[in-house]
Write a structure and sequence with these properties.
485 residues; mainly alpha; 18 helices
Length: 485
Amino acid sequence: MAIADDSAFSHSSLRRRPTATSDTSAEDLTKDSGSDDSISSAANPQPQKKQQLDSSLLKFAYRPSVPAHRRVKESPLSSDNIFRQLQSHAGLFNLCIVVLVSVNSRLIIENLIKYGWLIRSGFWFSSKSLRDWPLFMCCLSLVLFPFTAFIVEKLAQRKCIPEPVVVLLHIIITSTSLIYPILVILRCDSAFLSGVTLMLFACIVWLKLVSYAHTNYDMRALTKSVEKGEALPNTLNMDYPYNVSFKSLAYFMVAPTLCYQQSYPRTPYIRKGWVIRQLVKLIIFTGVMGFIIEQYINPIVQNSQHPFKGNLLYAMERVLKLSVPNLYVWLCMFYCFFHLWLNILAELLRFGDREFYKDWWNAKTVEEYWRMWNMPVHKWMIRHLYFPCLRHGIPKAVALLIAFLVSALFHELCIAVPCHIFKLWAFGGIMFQVPLVLITNYLQNKFRNSMVGNMIFWFIFCILGQPMCVLLYYHDLMNRKNKLD
């Protein structure tokens, strides 16, 4: 309550108007009286004056003629207030944590009583894992592609090869860096985790090589403009002439970024104690993920039917039952990779820009979520795909569709290739985000300052979408194994 609004309730005014028509309660009067100018003029009032003040407040503050309601106010749990006054709901937040811990503790005990200890390594590293050496060798050989790209750029800087040949060579290098691991995985009956790891490394190398080639191409174009005498904005922050350095490429290939530049912001030193603490957290949360997968997700999917080939209500029950442990695993994965691992890597390399994600959990639209949850990929998309499309005259809607198409292809590769299954479930799930972007944007424009879009995002993406994809790929994987057997 503002002091200016309640100044009528100062000690002097109460004496003049014992039946003032201001809204206030006894508690508000007591608070405001301590802040009023006429009362707080002395830093330490005498006890006698304080007693007179208290008696005056007691005399007039509780009179029936003093209004108890003055303003239009929302209830603390109303939708307008609950997201603006989070501090006032700290007790309820603590209650939610206590209930969450107690409920999940009961589920853990119930699961152990029902299934026993199910932790095993067969799904992650089976007896075939020792025969996954081709995948390991393929992973090591990926370092040859950045080295080849560096040679091409060095020749281009010295103008030994024309620009069209440079572009063609980079297309060959980047394409081979992705196709080669795919062929190795498809030819080997490897463990699932080994295939996923190799595909992730291959996709990261591809993205980095594209950024390296595209950035150097642009720097050559800018250098030519400078040589012609054209003035360029200072925001480019580029040295002329630019230098192709193997050291900068090597740092870029291990740095937690997908966007190449000649230099990065660096921290002054490495916090060794901090790194050790993050490594301990990484080990703990990785173990939590393994426990949830083996104890909860595996029994649920093994005891389920194909979601598209059975009873609809049964399929919905399985998806909802799988949604909670799947959500826990996904959140742990995000925390382990985007917060712990990338920060550990950045600390060891003294990489300064640690914005690997934003507060995507507050996203009110699906578009906001995709802009905030994976900043390295988002920056790559903006820098090397979205804005180049706009500069070539492609409409924004089409450029956005192209970005989702590329993302869907890589999601499909990272899941389908290790599973040796090409049903396009992951591809369809990502492309389904396009209409969700339109729907949540419309709802956000229609219901401003609301969290309708945020709730739709959590429900569609985490409660329905991911569990459905897990069930689909699991049953297709089991069908493939049965056919091979």
